[in-house]
Known about the structure:
- With 119 residues, the protein is mainly α.
- The protein has a domain at 36-107.
- The protein has four helices and no strands.
- The relative contact order is 0.09.
Amino acid sequence: MPMGQDSDESKAHNLALRVGSAVVLAPLTLLCAYLGGWLFLALCALAAGGIFWEWTHLLGDRTELRMLVPGWVGLGAAAVLIGRGDPGAAVVAAAAGAILAGAAIGLRPPRGAPPHVSV
């Protein structure tokens, strides 16, 4: 089989996994939206954290905690600040997390670069 093509069985398994996830997550999401408040805010923060993890995974061949931690901390702080009614500070917290995560990307050596050796 050529590289990059999935078998029909693999595609069916992937679809079944996605449908199963949707069956479990859709009612839970609707319940959180209905109840609102901190529960819904926590769900939104978890979704944003998952999207951020996926983004960092797409950037490179692996995710790195030095990129994830500042982003997750910024998202968590923003969620708490939104819940407390301070959206301006939430924007600042999210931006600070994004800037620090971006700085961590700049600190990462390029792919394939030899390890740094001190003499």
